[in-house]
Design brief:
Length: 257
């Protein structure tokens, strides 16, 4: 098996309820050539105490104020020495063999890797989102599960990191940028990560839809008229705050496990 150094970055702020499971999911990987980096936003709960329990097995720990989640991710990427970089936030955790699957598919150059993701709702019910078959759908929205996305370091070096211009969709901006620039995406038919539903990604609003439209136009995925924006705005007008819940319900029905 190929054995590149793979860097894993966890971004956290006041994550005492879930950070231990995240850390252990990284440290207990079947693949061992891992550099682990934690970027903390100056937590005020017991997060840093929990991290301290594992300090001998973590390459870098930063604890300082940041400009938001994407700024914290960029700090971690700047420290990473791995050939491949993965991002797993403190609400989420990896499958035990996740990094092994990435390593098996590793190839140098302008390459990203993406797999399936298991989502967990507030009631503990789960459904699996398989890796998307047609990446052209990235022009519509973030159809690649970010916790299951790994990126070669060369890609960040050539095409940049996460833009701080966006509050909720900088991960999609980066992924769409890669796709539009011709980066190779390798699909892995395995569950890579587990994602707890909630947080900023579910805060759908008119402002969110406008941000998505700006990203499409910036990356050349929409013309003067953004028809995706018009369609999504109409759906938001009809369903309002329930639109995201309807999206999750559809995912549960079609991907229930």
């Amino acid at each position: 098996m190929k054995t590149p150094l793979i860097s894993i970055i966890t971004v956290v702020y006041n994550g005492e309820n879930t950070i231990r499971q995240t850390i252990e999911s990284v440290l207990n990987q079947t693949y061992k050539n891992i550099e682990y980096i934690i970027v903390d936003g100056k937590s005020t709960d017991k997060t840093l105490d929990i991290i301290d329990d594992y300090k001998d097995r973590i390459a870098h720990v930063i604890s300082e104020k940041d400009k938001g989640i994407y700024d914290a991710m960029n700090k971690g990427i700047a420290l990473a020495k791995g050939k491949v970089i993965g991002l797993i936030n403190a609400d989420d955790y990896y499958e035990n063999d996740a990094v092994e699957h990435i390593a098996r598919h590793y190839q140098p150059g302008m390459v990203n890797y993406y797999g399936a993701m298991r989502s967990i709702d507030e009631d503990g019910k789960t459904f699996v989102s398989p890796p998307v078959q047609h990446l052209d759908k990235l022009k519509r929205g973030m159809v690649v599960s970010h916790p299951s996305l790994f990126v070669n370091n060369e890609v960040y070096e050539k095409y940049g990191v996460f833009s701080l211009d966006y509050k909720v969709a900088a991960d999609w901006d980066f992924t769409l940028r890669c796709f539009m620039k011709g980066v190779t995406f390798i699909k892995i038919e395995k569950i890579i990560s587990n994602f707890r539903i909630g947080g900023v990604s579910g805060a759908l609003s008119k402002k969110h839809l406008r941000e998505l439209s700006v990203i499409r136009k910036k990356n050349g995925a929409a013309g003067t008229v953004d028809f995706y924006y018009l369609y999504d705005s109409l759906r938001f007008f009809i369903f309002g705050k329930h639109l995201y819940r309807l999206f999750l319900l559809k995912k549960k029905i079609t991907n229930a496990k």
